[in-house]
Amino acid sequence: MVARAYEHLLAKLMSLEIAPGERIAIDTVARRLGISQTPVREALSQLEAEKLVSKMTNVGYRASPQMSRKEVGDLYTLRQLIEPYAAACAAEAMTDEAIAILQDIDRDMSGVEAGDAHAFSRFAEADATLHRLIATGSGNRLIAEAIERLHAHIHIFRALYSTNAPHEAAAEHRMIIDALVAHDPVAAEQAVRVHLERSQQRMDAALAESIETPVL
Ligand SMILES: [Zn+2]
């Protein structure tokens, strides 16, 4: 029940059906899912730990507000510290099964054309799968969990700004995938570093623009 409430709320937060700052009515969610309020509360406290919602005194929960440019910069700084290292570890430890998944991801990503909302969400999913595979492939559970939590925010930004220009990012991802498949830790580390730098630049440009023209 908790897992179901969690998945339901997470999907709505990611797709912005629940907008940043919007109040989340526990009773409404419980009624819609046909469950009691207790699992909904538990799911919300998990999402609170992931900083996707925040608890307000006497009001209940709200979706977290949009991150500022500074917070997004901090987020990328942290990713740069963790993910290139994780990729180097993963490159050394890639199993045949993981390599088969990588090849599927590559196919999904290269088939995506820019500007199509549906294709974009497929691309975002393939991107999340790739970064998760690197995270778990590192063989370090704490690193994997830290990366997983950070990505939740990135998804919201993707939904908002559609910044990760699919063609551009697909080429960057191919460099990462090639290095992982070749079991080359140095190349994998470098490819992730370059991808994160470019991704941050795309994100920052979109955020600078949104100050002029708010998306919501
Ligand atoms: Zn990526």
SSE blueprint:
Blueprint: H1 2-14, E1 23-24, H2 26-33, H3 37-49, E2 53-56, E3 60-63, H4 69-93, H5 96-110, H6 117-137, H7 141-161, H8 166-181, H9 185-212
Antiparallel strand pairs: 1-3, 2-3
Helix pairs in contact: 1-3, 2-3, 4-6, 4-7, 4-8, 4-9, 5-6, 5-8, 6-7, 8-9
The structure holds zinc ion.
Query: Considering the protein shown, what is the CATH homologous superfamily of the largest domain?
Result: GntR ligand-binding domain-like
Question: What would you call the shape?
Answer: globular
What is the CATH top level name of the largest domain? Mainly Alpha
Could you give the distance between the termini? 32 Å
Tally the structural domains. Answer: 2
Unreliable stretches covering 5 or more consecutive residues = none
Strand content: under 5%
Q: How large is the count of helical segments? A: 9
Order of helices and strands: HEHHEEHHHHHH
Helix content: over 70%
- Mind summarizing the main beta sheet? 3 strands, antiparallel
Give a list of the ligands. Answer: zinc ion
Average pLDDT figure: 84
Order of strands, widest sheet: 1-3-2
